[in-house]
Design brief:
313 residues; alpha/beta; Rossmann fold; 2 domains; eight-stranded mixed sheet; 54% helix; 11% strand; elongated; binds NADP nicotinamide-adenine-dinucleotide phosphate; 6-phosphogluconate dehydrogenase C-terminal domain-like protein; NAD(P)-bd_dom_sf; 6-PGluconate_DH-like_C_sf
Length: 313
């Protein structure tokens, strides 16, 4: 009889709690640590059936640690976990092997350079490392994001083991083949998000610029897109409104993508980071209704929908 793996997920945010729910539904024990977490995170952890344990217990009890938290905290959490791993040994021993195997998967939207820095945290420790990048939204009854994964070329066994988490409801897709290693799953995530969130940012930027010229210009832009670029206008009706509540999270992600692309073209996503920062400020303004930018974008998307619906009648 095979023993079920124990998974720890830090933290129970929108993504972490939904991944946890998938695993607990499949019968796995999912641990977390709620020190310092908000009531909303605590409620999500409870609903997903996660068990709150001290961080120092996780290295002893979990076989997998999935780091799913704000990308800016990814490196410091990895260091905190490594310190917790050694704290139960009284900091006196630095084992080269252990009977209890634990592997750490960084699942955050960080660039390849950052994930390599994170993986270095575990060099010369028995803790195995997986670079993972989640493409898609949180899993639900009808939908699964893909968790792309890569590992050190010398360490294919840990990648095979991570892939076996597919048995418990996760959609894991390992990157193997020529040159594949740590950094590649994150590079894939950066490339995909750079296109999908980049296109949304470009549309948002030009709607705001057109409207700043005059509202009549924005209306003319809408009608020209309807006539000559209907698929782009159609995309705007869904992607721009759904971006608004997530803009705060996309600021850091655009900065990571900018660093990934590098000097020159990387400035595109640096600019988009500033755009999403501006949207985040606008979301917080206007007593719940949002500031001027939010109103302009919502109106553009609503008008575009009316024009598209009018054409299909
Ligand atoms: N949501 C998506 O659609 C999606 C898609 C693909 C990838 N991802 C990736 O998944 C990760 C998490 O995203 P999310 O949407 O779940 O974010 P989220 O809903 O904002 O949740 C973040 C979670 O991390 C906790 N947290 C904040 N700072 C922490 C720290 N220093 N140590 C431990 N926990 C901390 C938060 O707790 P508090 O509530 O107490 O602040 C919260 O539970 C990100 O790297 C993101 O790029 C998300």
């Amino acid at each position: 009889m095979s023993v079920l793996p124990v998974v720890a997920i830090i933290a129970p945010g929108a993504m972490g709690s939904a991944v946890a729910k998938r695993l607990t539904t499949a019968g796995l024990t999912v641990l977390t640590n709620l020190d310092g977490r908000s009531p909303a995170s605590r409620a999500r952890a409870h609903d997903a059936g996660m068990q709150d344990v001290p961080l120092s217990d996780i290295p002893l009890k979990a076989n997998w640690v999935l780091s799913i938290l704000p990308p800016s905290d990814a490196l410091s959490f990895a260091q905190k976990f490594r310190d917790a791993y050694y704290s139960h040994l009284g900091n006196t021993a630095r084992p080269t092997s252990t009977s209890h195997q634990v592997a750490f998967a960084d699942c955050n939207a960080v660039n390849p350079q950052t994930v390599k820095r994170i993986s270095h945290t575990f060099v010369n420790t028995p803790i195995k490392f997986i670079d993972a990048g989640i493409i898609g939204g949180p899993p639900n009854d009808d939908y699964d994001p893909v968790i792309y994964a890569s590992a050190d070329a010398q360490d294919t066994a840990v990648l095979d083991a991570f892939e076996r988490l597919s048995k418990y409801g996760l959609k894991v897709s390992p990157l193997r083949g020529e040159g594949a290693g740590i950094g590649d799953a994150s590079a894939l995530k950066m490339s995909y998000a750079g296109i999908s969130k980049g296109i949304t940012g470009l549309c948002t930027t030009m709607i705001l610029a057109a409207n700043a010229s005059s509202p009549a210009t924005a209306q003319a832009l809408l009608h020209e897109l309807s006539a000559s670029q209907p698929s782009i206008l159609h995309r705007i009706t869904t992607s721009v409104p759904s971006m608004l509540p997530k803009a705060y999270r996309w600021v850091g992600e655009m900065e990571e993508i900018s660093e990934f692309v590098g000097d020159g073209p990387g400035k595109i996503h640096e600019g988009l980071a500033r755009l999403y920062e501006r949207i985040e400020k606008s979301i917080k303004a206007g007593e719940g209704e949002g500031g001027e930018d939010v109103k302009v974008l919502k109106k553009f998307a609503e008008d575009a929908k009316k024009v598209i619906d009018g054409k299909t009648k």
